[in-house]
Amino acid sequence: MTTTALTRLTQLVTNDPSLGEGPLGLIQDAAVVIDGDRIAWVGPSSKAPATDNAVDASGRSALPGFVDSHSHLVFGGDRTQEFNARMSGRAYEAGGIRTTVAATRAATDEQLSANVAHYLAEALRQGTTTFETKSGYGLTVEDEARALRIAGEHTDEVTYLGAHIVSPDYADDPAGYVDLVTGPMLDACAPHARWIDVFCEKGAFDGDQARAILTAGKRRGLLPRIHANQLSYGPGVQLGVELDAASADHCTHLTDADVDALANSATVATLLPGAEFSTRATWPDARRLLDAGATVALSTDCNPGSSFTSSMPFCIALAVRDMRMTPDEAVWAATAGGAQALRRTDVGRITPGARADLTLLDAPSHVHLAYRPGVPLVSGVWRKGVRVA
Ligand SMILES: [Zn+2]
Question: What SS3 class is residue 287?
């Protein structure tokens, strides 16, 4: 196998405290050796072993490829007008999802797949090398299974979200829709997904419904995650912790008991600042979660309605500026935190044996991701050892 070294990196984020300084395991004047699809060696540039190829990365820094653990990319249509209206003073409601459901049902397989490929390529150019994505805009047995099949052509991290909203076809029979989601739809979808998710929120699914949905999914071997406490206080976070969800996502409205529950569990609090940005909503209090000892991840929530960004650097900048995370915490949350939210140990770190996913910045430090917001600093991306951008 071919070996490649990135040498003379001004700074390297490993996310392994045993390899360098602080929680990020920072190494100054560093080198990384890639062997095939794996990281083979990291350390000071002066001690790097000989390799087949070398990239002189002087003046630049590297960090693990971003792990975006929450997106909704299998969709048709566009919601420019809704965004424009909202920015002109109208409040966001979960019902906007119905617009995308109609457009998604009307789209061909080819159109949906091309759309996923388009946004994945966009994310990759911005340094994202692991991507989760969900169904949730089909809301029929056939359309949900189709969405998962298409998602699975592009990523291994596929989530069944038949319980995004109650299907408009069941507007007068939400209990009947829960039966569908936990019955025939689950049967059709479980073979194509790793995860099950539910939007636990007023106007979507209440605590009892969410519990029934996640429990049914677990019985079929799917791992739970949950959209929790985004628009209001509610039972979502506690339910996620109770069911050992890998992640409770949004966490914008939390009681002290919710924060305690997260801090004393293996459930990651995944914060999605793109959603608050794009809906002019209250920011989640990352500082409160971190100070309590909860594990925090950052993700884009990329979707056409409430957060149409694929940019993890943008989310890092928001988290630092508006959610009181330090640059180190935000970078950890966007890499190792995301990996933990997907219960992965092979990504989100640059350590020997890890998958060779690496983002090179045209900047001397990862701090520049927040210090220089909106600037395209990503100058190279390696995924599974292959330079892809
Ligand atoms: Zn979401």
Answer: helix
Q: How far apart are CA 222 and CA 181, in angstroms?
A: 13
Query: Does this model's pTM top 0.90?
Result: yes
Predicted confidence at residue 95, as pLDDT, reads 54
3-class SS of residue 237: helix
| Cα(184) to centroid(ligand 1), Å | 23
pLDDT digits 0-9 by tens, 155-208: 999 999 999 999 999 999 999 999 999 999 999 999 999 999 999 999 999 999
Residue carrying the six token digits 């701090």: 367
Query: What distance separates the 2 farthest-apart alpha carbons in the chain?
Result: 69
Query: Would you say 306 is a known binding-site residue?
Result: yes
- Sort 263 into a burial class: Cβ within 10 Å, 0-12 / 13-18 / 19+: middle
Q: How far is the CA of 71 from the centre of ligand 1 (A)?
A: 6
Q: Is the pLDDT of residue 243 over 70?
A: yes
298 CA → ligand 1 middle, Å: 12
Taking the alpha carbons at both ends of the chain, their separation in whole angstroms is 21
- What distance in Å separates the CA atoms of residue 295 and residue 305, rounded to the nearest whole number? 27
pLDDT (average), residues 80-95: 77
3-state DSSP helix/strand/coil % of the chain, to nearest 5: 40, 25, 40
Q: Is the pLDDT of residue 11 over 60?
A: yes
Rounded average pLDDT over 214-227 = 98
Question: Is 79 annotated to bind ligand?
Answer: yes
Taking the C-alpha atoms of residue 56 and residue 45, their distance in angstroms, rounded to an integer, is: 10
User: Which pLDDT belongs to residue 168?
Assistant: 94
* Whether 196 contacts 213, CB under 8 Å: yes
